[in-house]
From TrEMBL:
Coiled-coil stretches noted in the UniProt entry, renumbered to this chain: 20-68, 126-192, 540-592, 679-713
Chain ranges of the Protein phosphatase 1 regulatory subunit 21 N-terminal domain: 1-94
Gene Ontology molecular functions: RNA binding
UniProt subcellular location: Early endosome
Keywords annotated in UniProt: Coiled coil, Endosome, RNA-binding
Principal subcellular localisation of the protein: other
Organism whose genome encodes this protein: Ptilorrhoa leucosticta
Designated gene of the protein: Ppp1r21
Protein name: Protein phosphatase 1 regulatory subunit 21
Residue segments, region Disordered: 597-619
SMART domains linked to this entry: KLRAQ
């Protein structure tokens, strides 16, 4: 650039110098012409002065001649003719001289003016040229200074670049040597890797029985990488879509409801007159709109609930999309059912006497808009049903066509919004025209306002839905089309469902791994606890049987206790009767006997209490010795004066003895049951020990097989890791070689540029 600017400036300086030289020559020529004109001017002034002097002399001569004429008139008269001729000659000559002098004065004035003008122009031009020359000289000086500095800088750079080129050449030589060494190493590594690869392939073919990633059918069952952010984004988008669908559902319900009211009001009010059968049927169908519109919201809600953070959301797993497509198909059938009635109703309204030409035109526009609206819903249903195909029949829609379907859905939503804008515009125009009808009522006006508000809400909802779908089109296309690692898609919805089940199991397993481990129990203690647990389970069964038997015995004893209580009450009654009989016979003797008999029942009651206690606590009752009881019985019999009291004492003694024996019998039964339970527990423990021995032998076999398999897999993993490491080294070396080649090419280019610059 500096060279090009230098050449341009040199050309400009040369041109300016040539211009200044030509101007100097012109200035010299003008000076020469000016000098000539000045010389001519000087000569003319000199000539003019001569002529003026001559005129003065002639005037003097004329005055002298006139003075002489007075003296000698006669001579004058004689010579008057000659003087007149001379005078006429002088006058002519003087007139010519005056004219010539005047002309010369004019020429001199013009030449002087021209000379002054030229001199001023030349002076101004000379000043401009001098300033331009000074500027050019300054530019030339600055450029020369700059060029000298750049030349010095370039010389320094040249020296540095020569040094750098020498160093780069040395580095290039080193790089060539290193590349040769790397190539040699590469060949050696390729040979080693080839041999190891053959060995590893042989081991893989012999030891690895199954590789599920080779088959797309089995690879579809593998769980893909979980993208939590993607799932949260999809759930957020599904929530926004649910809100938009709810808004559209509300607007559609209002639109169909207010359309039904409008049909019953205009052109004929059903409150005052009967409407046509067509409008009656149309209003009847419109009254059923909620059963077709509400399921859309429910289907979208179920779809939103199916998208959670833990699931894998793709088109193969979104089974609820099929239900939404079916609900949309039912609503489309509803629109197709009411479309002919709506069109006929508009035509019937056009044929009425209240319909003007402008209103008829608006009705025909709405006639076309309703057809377009049904066609747009048919398009939407077609594309939504296509999106629902992968969850039922994956071969019905390939993954390569996902983007096409999503773009067409976005285009259909925009078309839906445009049609609704036209419908809103035409309905507003129709409402204004219907208000001008003389039979328009307040009910019709309010119905039209509600209908317009519902259409406006429907238009806004459709616009939001279209913009939302267009803004997130790329995200829908990318996020709903990922699959297992190494595969492109899921084979079938069944495989996708199995994959989700595997994912749940894997998540549960990971959660269980994250739980803190409980305090471990030593192995010997655990074995002891296991034996105790097994024996306790067996003893628990025995104890349950014992408890059942003891409960039955307790029930029997309770029955016997009630029986003996009744007998004791009867004995007391008999005793009271006998006391009353003997009361009057022998007072003293009877009182003693009564006291002794009153002591005997107390002793009997005490014996009964002891028997009850012995029944409850049989082990404690056995502590009394038999000899002591016999001595006590003899002493009581000696004290008892009457036979009945003796019988009672004997009876109580034997009852106590029976209770003691029963307690001993219960103790023996419990011990036998305990021993039987222990025997059963030991037998079961023995069987469990044999089973554990068998399981341990099987586990030992499996462990030996696993050891051999793990050794083979370990060798395979080592080979694979070495292969990967060598591949990484090879890739790094190839990248290093590429970078070295690039540096060499750059150095060569720099050397070439330096050579060109030095030249």
């Amino acid at each position: 650039q500096l060279r090009a600017q230098n050449q341009v400036l040199k050309k400009g300086v040369v041109d300016e110098q040539a211009n200044s030289a030509s101007l100097k020559e012109q200035l010299k020529m003008k000076d020469q012409s000016l000098r000539k004109l000045q010389q001519e001017m000087d000569s003319l002034t000199f000539r003019n002065q001569q002529l003026a002097k001559r005129v003065e002399l002639l005037q003097d001569e004329l005055a002298l001649s006139e003075a002489r004429g007075k003296k000698n008139k006669k001579s004058v008269e004689s010579s008057s003719q000659l003087s007149q001729e001379q005078k006429s000659v002088f006058n002519e000559d003087l007139q010519k001289k005056i004219e010539e002098n005047e002309r010369l004065h004019i020429l001199f004035f013009e030449a002087d003016e021209q000379h002054k003008r030229l001199e001023a122009e030349l002076r101004s031009r000379l000043e401009v040229l001098e300033t331009d020359a000074a500027q050019h000289q300054a530019v030339v000086d600055s450029l020369t200074k700059k060029y000298t500095e750049t030349i010095e800088k370039l010389q320094n750079d040249k020296a540095k670049l020569e040094i750098k080129s020498q160093t780069l050449e040395r580095e290039a030589k080193d790089c060539r040597l290193r590349t040769e060494e790397c190539q040699q190493q590469l060949k050696n590594l390729q040979a080693a890797l080839g041999s190891r690869l053959e060995e590893s392939l042989c081991i893989i073919n012999e030891k690895v029985p199954f590789n599920d990633t080779r088959s797309t059918r089995y690879n579809a069952l593998n769980v893909p990488l979980h993208n939590r952010r993607n799932q949260l984004k999809l759930r957020d988008l599904a929530g926004q879509a649910l809100a938009f669908v709810q808004e559209l559902v509300t607007a559609l319900l209002n639109f169909h409801t207010y359309t039904e009211q409008k049909v019953q009001i205009f052109p004929v009010d059903s409150a005052t007159d009967t409407i046509s059968p067509l409008n009656q049927k149309f209003s009847q169908y419109l009254h059923e709109n909620a059963s077709y519109v509400r399921p859309l919201e429910e289907g979208m809600l179920h779809l939103f609930e199916s998208i959670t953070e833990d699931t894998v959301t793709v088109l193969e797993t979104t089974v609820k999309l099929k239900a939404f497509s079916e609900h949309l198909a039912s609503y489309l059938g509803f629109l197709r059912k009411i479309l002919p009635y709506q069109l006929k109703s508009l035509e019937e309204e056009c044929e009425s006497s209240l319909c003007t030409a402008a209103l008829r035109a608006r009705n025909m526009e709405l006639h076309r808009d309703m057809k377009r609206l049904t066609a747009v819903f048919e398009k939407l249903h077609t594309y939504v049903s296509l999106l629902a195909l992968p969850s039922t029949r994956p071969e019905g829609l390939l993954r390569t066509n996902y983007n096409f379907v999503f773009t067409n859905i976005a285009a259909s939503l925009h078309g839906f919004h445009d049609i609704l804008k036209d419908i809103s515009k035409h309905y507003s125009q129709k409402a204004t025209l219907e208000q001008e009808v003389p039979t328009a009522t307040q009910k019709l006006i309010t119905t039209n306002d509600c209908l317009l508000s519902s259409v406006a809400a429907l238009t806004n909802g459709a616009g939001k839905m279209a913009s939302f779908f267009s803004n997130n089109l790329d995200h829908f296309t990318t996020s709903l089309s990922y699959g297992p690692k190494g595969g492109t898609e899921f084979i079938s919805p069944l495989s996708a469902e199995c994959m989700l089940q595997y994912k749940k199991k894997a998540a549960a397993y990971m959660k269980s791994l994250k739980k803190p481990c409980a305090d471990s129990v030593p192995y010997e203690e655990a074995l002891a606890n296991r034996r105790v647990l097994l024996s306790s389970t067996e003893s628990r069964e025995g104890l349950a049987q014992q408890v059942q038997q003891s409960l039955e015995k307790i029930a029997k004893l309770e029955q016997e206790k009630e029986h003996w209580m009744l007998e004791a009450q009867l004995a007391k009654i008999k005793l009271e009767k006998e006391n009353q009989k003997l009361k009057n016979s022998l007072s003293g003797h009877l009182t003693e006997t009564i006291q002794e008999r009153s002591v005997l029942p107390n002793i009997a009651e005490q014996k009964k209490e002891t028997t009850e206690k012995s029944l409850r606590e049989p082990i404690k009752s056995t502590s009394l010795s038999t000899n002591h009881k016999c001595c006590l019985l003899k002493s009581l019999l000696c004290q008892a004066p009457d036979v009945e009291s003796r019988e009672d004492l004997i009876k109580t003694h034997y009852m106590a003895r029976i209770a003691e024996l029963t307690s001993h019998l219960q103790l023996a039964d419990s011990k036998s049951v305990h021993f039987h339970a222990e025997c059963r527990a030991l037998a079961k423990r023995l069987s469990l020990a044999e089973k554990s021995k068998e399981s341990l032998t099987e586990e030992l076999k499996l462990a030996s097989q696993n050891i051999t398999r793990l050794q083979a897999s370990k060798l395979f993993c080592i080979l694979m890791t070495t292969k990967r490491s060598y591949e990484d080294q090879l890739s790094m070396m190839s990248d290093h070689l590429c970078s070295m080649n690039e540096t060499l090419t750059k150095q060569r280019e720099e050397i070439d540029t330096l050579k060109m610059a030095s030249k």
